[in-house]
Specification:
This protein has one domain (3-303): Rossmann fold. It is 32% helix and 21% strand. It has eleven helices and twelve strands.
Amino acid sequence: MRIAAILASVLLLPAVVFAEGFRLAPYKDDLFKYQRILGELYGGGFVVVEFDDARDVGGRDEIRLKKAYDQFVSLEVNEYKKDLLIREEETVRYIGVGKTDGDAKIVVIYLHGRHGDRTLAQEDLRFGGNFNRVKNLMVLNDGVYLTPDFSNFGSKGTDEVKTLMRHYAKNSPDAPIIVACASTGCIIVDELLATPEGVELLDGVIMHGALPIPSSLRPTFFQLPVFKDPAKYVPIYIGQGSADPTVPWVTQELFFKTVKAVAPDYPIRVELFKGEDAVHGTPIRMMDWRLVLNWILDMNEADH
């Protein structure tokens, strides 16, 4: 189905879809929904999702780890993709999909991990088509999806990401800004949570296979204002593979428990994808973008 036709069908949805606040309308939900929840711990804040390689890789990929089956992707969305450059506080090259010129209803930024670049999280056919899904979700819901290059995973890279965030805070002032990241890229998200400006710009974070808190922040991280002041809470989602050899899942459980000890009402959700083959990249493939983004929107609405 062409994007124009899909857009027309979304516009014809009943008004009740967004009656209680902006939420993302469905898109390929049956294909990307979790097939089996194994358990919910800590009052539902820690969810264990079954990962079955035969179903979740073999059933999604025509060519294993390289090409998803056609039904999982809609390549017409790339008609709305642009390779862009902004020169403001920092110079940032990025790819944008959707309402890049402004008036977006939601802004999602994805930060690559080590050895990646701005093209990685624009991959349509890899990761079971999951990046293609978030691109389509943004276009169909008047949002924008951004994947930047940045110089490093330190202060320079953080400043570049902040520049991109400021730019879209200006051109889409009513849109929540959600920053997602993979692996080493999550160090930048930690840095954003540690600065007043970063917290002010953020409306939610999504971490896939997040590395531990950098040593420069570790001693005082959980004493930051973002955890101490409910008015500054930024919803945090963490997706983790149970067999990840890079980041053990118990690290994420400890992070979750520490946040809840410091701030029991803090909006944090961990999804552990459990299976013997649930490795470092599994959350990228498996996370239900619509479910998680709508959870973040729900948490922001509850805070207000």
